[in-house]
Sequence to fold (285 residues):
Amino acid sequence: MNRMMLEFAFQLAKNIEAKAVLLYADMIPDQHLVKAMEDFQIILVTKGAQEVPKSFLDHVTVLNVPDVNLTRIGQVKIAITKGIVMGQFKKGDRIVCLSGVPKFEYLDSLFVLDVGKEFEILTSEDIPDITEVGYPEVFGTLLSIALELAAQGREGRKVGTIFVLGDHEKVLQLSRQMIINPFMGYREEERNILNTDLKETIKELSAIDGAFVIQNNGVIVTAGRHLSAALESKDFPQGLGSRHIAAAGITSITDAVAIVISESTGTVSVFKNGNVFVRIEKPNA
Fold:
């Protein structure tokens, strides 16, 4: 089954002049199948701390995503989103994506995507350059934390929060503190989201009202921040709650990007320039 899917995917990719074939590592227990396709670009998606066999590394580009369970479409969304942020994909690229159910270890779905045109994956054709806002690894870490919170909640409770990354000085001017800043007085290296020791603290503080404000290098400036900026009601994207309205507002008048977790639905949305860039439905815990 996997051999047939891979052979068809690579032949299709060549016929339509696709940039790459994207597939999840845990779907391919047969390493030799990937090695046999080494004449074409492969984006191998790995979850969390999952190790990629050394025999793969010479033939693939590795893209790390959070270790949460996602639907087939969710798998593709998170991989494409992180690929754009990490500079692997850009608007106009055509990508062949293979997906399936990991526990069965076989591929059963194939998608052909044109980045910037496929609105089931990306909700806007205006693909922002996240590297202008924050370091790719910072955005990737934030997105991973958001997806984990959406899937798992915190101590059995649903969680809703906002992470605002970049242009922090202007964001602070357009917001106000709701609680005493829990990060005040700590060294920058101690409050950088790339510090793995900080993850549980971030998850714990996500239960409080207000937004996290984060510098482009990953240093958390504050949490519990009320975002004062708002769009005119006529400019609201349809169906947004208060957190999403706040995220749309702050990103419409600053150069920041905002990642929002909906407490009611568990959906993770990424905002830039006042619009939703991508929306990832709640993963299964």
Summary: The chain has two domains: 2-114, 130-280. Residues 136-152 form the longest helix (17 residues). Residues 130-280 form a domain with the YojJ-like (1 fold (CATH 3.40.1700.10). The first strand starts at residue 20 and ends at 24.
